[in-house]
Amino acid sequence: MREPTPASTALADVAPEPGVAKPDPILVVDGVRRSFGGLTAVDVEHLELQRGAITSLIGPNGAGKTTFFNLMTGFDQPNAGTWQFAGDDLAGVPAHRVARSGMVRTFQLTKALTRLTVLENMKLGATQQRGERMLTSLWPPAWKAQERAIEERADELLVRFKMDHMRDELGGTLSGGQRKLLEMARALMVEPVMVMLDEPMAGVNPALTQSLLQHVKDLPSFGMTVLFVEHDMDVVMDISDWIVVMAQGQIIAEGPPDVVSKDPAVITAYIGEEHGDESRFTPVPRGAGAPVAVIEEAPVDTHEGEDEHSGPHAEEREP
Amino acid sequence: MSEPLLIAEDVTAGYLPGIDILTGCTLTLDEGEFVGIIGPNGAGKSTLLKSLFGLVDIRSGSVRLRGEDITNLAANRLVSKGVGYVPQTKNIFPSLSIEENLEMGLYLAPKAFKERFAHVAELFPLLGARRKQRAGALSGGERQMVAMGRALMMQPSVLLLDEPSAGLSPALQDEAFLRARDINATGVSIVMVEQNARRCLQICHRGYVLDQGRNAYTGSGRHLLTDPKVIELYLGTLAKAP
Predict the structure, then answer these.
(1) Do A301 and B177 touch (CB under 8 A)?
(2) So what's the pLDDT on residue B171?
(3) What domains appear along chain A, each with residue ranges and CATH number?
């Protein structure tokens, strides 16, 4: 369990029930509905997100989390509903203007530009570049200094995300996990008011996840609000000030991590009643043979037999 | 001991001229075996799978299937030899229905569709129930099931899985691993790349840790899970459940 943060303290007295009002909401959603044919993908009656908090949005696959992201950020239009971001009505506003208003998102399936280098990808994330206007672009002194500042910020973020060694590689040569890192770093180029991260940790290796998590945790201290879709419950429990649970398009629960994780409806719909039961995960038994007991410094060409693993391994159980 | 079902020996491979992603990687897979591959981002895990499936140019080293040299053989030839592959992303045809997606997996043997589809729908009931739905309207987790189902249509003897749990909820991740285990129990040998190292090492017979394009450690899944070097380098403390 994480240490109390200013946001979690502010939310301490808020009742853990769907649609509850927050003391200082930055995003207020009302009656947003989106259906595809007969399927209602999103049907959110009322939702408020606390300013400066890290809110996790969890829910089973197909619950409508990504669709909800798309609606909020102007990548898709709802059939009905309104929402205000920092006091501005955003319904019907196109995606690029949503981003300019300070709400920036990442994608579950990464959108790195493959024929540009990592650094160029990063620099594209910056907005209001003077060199992008036709007239000023002809006179380099008008934008050189800004370009340098952008490059510095890009390099700083690449170091923070441990991607600086890939700076001059083409986006297309990055592995799946590295693209995730690039995507997240690029979103921070605009110094957003609110960051919406769609499964930023999927495909990132566990050791790196921890340092990334620390960066996400630091974002509120830079004045940012974070909305975070993630499936790893260890991560969600560790990082969230508040958790919102969606299922079949609706908000079925919200509250602080320790309350939500014990909510029977959440366990049934999402976590799985048997999730903690590690004894289910054993290899398929194989024919008799000598057990492989040694960890060798590879490469190895051959191996002999297999040991059979069975029974629960109590010491590896989850909390 | 006879030669393993699949063996990749000292493989060097990469995408761009002069830059090797794999720098001497070795992997063996026995009949009926489940092998897991873990490692840091950019270690070459997905590239290793792609090189086994003829999608990346192997520059030196060899791959053999049942003793036959299949190095740099085209993917379609490998499918007919019983190798199935499920990519990490962009692994479905979004404009086609679920059923049509699965048909695409069977273009080498279209007549067997009915029987094979029934078999796959047994493993993934959702695919049977929503067979006419457009795959592009499915969520991330459901798409993964379509991709796995499609690879199984050809009844492969070797299945290559690239991060099957990516983007799935905890309950469905558990499901995905148990399904992979079920597939393995039917006799299909599996090579699986995973980020969920703990689950991966729990269900595989043997694991490989890749680092910078080569093997760093190998051993049975259970032993890798508890090896202090592997935990420090790769698993991290979050994965070491308290």
Answers:
(1) no
(2) 82
(3) 1-110+191-281 (3.40.50.300), 113-173 (no CATH)
